[in-house]
Amino acid sequence: MANEKIRFEGVTKRFGALTVLDKLDLSINDGEVVTIIGPSGSGKTTVLRCLMTLESIEDGLIRIDGEPLNKMESEGRLVPASNAHLRRMRLKLGMVFQSFNLFPHLTVLQNCVEPPIFALGVTRDEARSRAQELLDMVGMGDKQAHYPAQLSGGQQQRVAIARTLAMQPEILVFDEPTSALDPETIEEVTSVIRSLAVKHSYTMLMVTHQIAFAHDISDRICFFDKGRIVEQGPPAAVIDAPTEARTQQFLRKVAQAR
Amino acid sequence: MSRSPIAILVPLAFLAGLYFAVFSSVAQFLPALLNGLTVTVSVAVPSILLAYAISLLAGLGRLSSIAPLRWVSVVYIEVFRGVSLLVVLFWLYFVLPEFGLTLSAYTAALLGVSLNAGAYGAEIVRGAVRAEPKGQYEACVTLNMPPLRKYARIILPQALVIAIPAMTNMTIELLKGTALVSAVTLVDLTAAGVRQNQLTYRTVEIFSVLALIYFCLAQIVRFSGARLEHVFNRHLGER
Ligand SMILES: Nc1ncnc2c1ncn2[C@@H]1O[C@H](COP(=O)(O)OP(=O)(O)OP(=O)(O)O)[C@@H](O)[C@H]1O
Ligand SMILES: [Mg+2]
């Protein structure tokens, strides 16, 4: 059996009176590509944000490589994680945002070079050569001196992917990476993500409304509704032959919207 | 349609003549005003720099997660926003000696003007930092940027660009506020004008020149601000 990379154990997240994640259990293996689909407001983004430590969780435990993320062990007990613990655990995680979140006052190259220097402590030369490699890989090698505002959405998202990879994470998290893009530029981003899923050994957790794309690259699809996993399994099962009524209804709606 | 140069030169010559008829006395009081201008500039320039530093410290202090820093900043901001510059100047120059701390008129002026402006500047800095999109902070978290680097390299450079127009305003206010330093015996531009008026009774000329000089100083500040904004905004584009 493959190694378990990420594990959500009874994770509950509330915003005030609203329970967004309801005792979520989810386990993802090393190298597995998992895509979450589901209706708007079902808590998909919240799952990713909890994993990225951008949200605190009310109850439950997230583990990475078996080690607690939102808690830490102290004298045999689990206590809330310190900043140092979070910082160390986050080194394994990288996130690509729907809205890119590039640093607009830095060039493409600086965007990819500075975080590893400051957060990983690599030398500037090392960071630069690695960033250049990654920018070449995402097809942005000739735009290193540009500023984000001078690029199209698809180009910005490819830079954002390179910036995330420059931190050498083991787990990649994508929140609707193509939702803010013009239809013509979606393909250039999905093809980069596809090559990451196929050619590299990253563990990937993605949220997308691109059902065909999800079908293409995912090992497993999780259909989410109201903070719970309603149905999960290989794309051929969940997308092509869903058993739950909610899943069928959602997929029909998505198909109609096309 | 072409105009002969004479059609332009004649009215210009007329205006020049009128100017000299009215302002022939300028030479009488101008040297004194220029001395006053030197005092105004020598108070304003260091005050501006000090006010910027105070703005940054108090603005960030107010946003700090460290409670005592927040309290100190809030007290400073509210006190100096709530008390008029004139009263602050009196305190620094006339009241502090009662407690054994004597400041020179120049030091009192510089401190008063910059502490007063810094209180407004701090709120500008705070607003600009808070205007920074949430996504920038979240990118810093996911990229594990250390807090100091996050502010120095990511948040502040963007916030300060946002703050330029309001800071330009504050700087012009500061400049005009230096007219109050005569309260602590400094003979600045305004004080020099008042004196010359008492000596020469050239009221219209003196206060016209005075207004013109303040206006030009404000324009220098405005122009520098616009230049800075242009340079920094070049790359930022629409956000
Ligand atoms: N910071 C917040 N404060 C309060 N409520 C929030 C917050 N963030 C999310 N929510 C609520 O939590 C629920 C789940 O949000 P989430 O963003 O995870 O949904 P989603 O599945 O990603 O939806 P979408 O497909 O629209 O992106 C929604 O009802 C949302 O309004
Ligand atoms: Mg979402």
Provide a compact summary of the structure.
The complex is a heterodimer of chains A (258) and B (239). Chain A is α/β, with parallel strands linked by helices.
Structure in words:
Chain A is an alpha/beta fold and 258 residues long. Chain A has helices spanning 44-51, 83-90, 108-120, 124-137, 153-166, 183-199, 211-217, 235-238, 245-257, and strands spanning 4-15, 18-29, 33-37, 59-64, 67-68, 71-74, 77-80, 93-96, 171-175, 203-207, 220-225, 228-233. Chain A contains nine helices and twelve strands. In chain A, the strands form three sheets. Chain A has a six-stranded mixed β-sheet, sandwiched between helices. In chain A, strands 2-1-4-5 form a four-stranded antiparallel β-sheet, with helices on one face. In chain A, strands 6-7 form a two-stranded antiparallel ribbon. Chain B contains nine helices and no strands. Chain B has a single domain, classed as MetI-like fold (Orthogonal Bundle). Chain A binds chain B through residues 52-54, 87, 90-91, 93-95, 97, 99, 101-105, 114-115, 118-120, 147-150, 163-164, 167, and chain B through 133, 135-136, 138-139, 141-146, 149, 153-154, 157-158, 161, 232, 235-239. The complex binds adenosine-5'-triphosphate and magnesium ion. The site of magnesium ion has 2 residues of chain A, from α1.
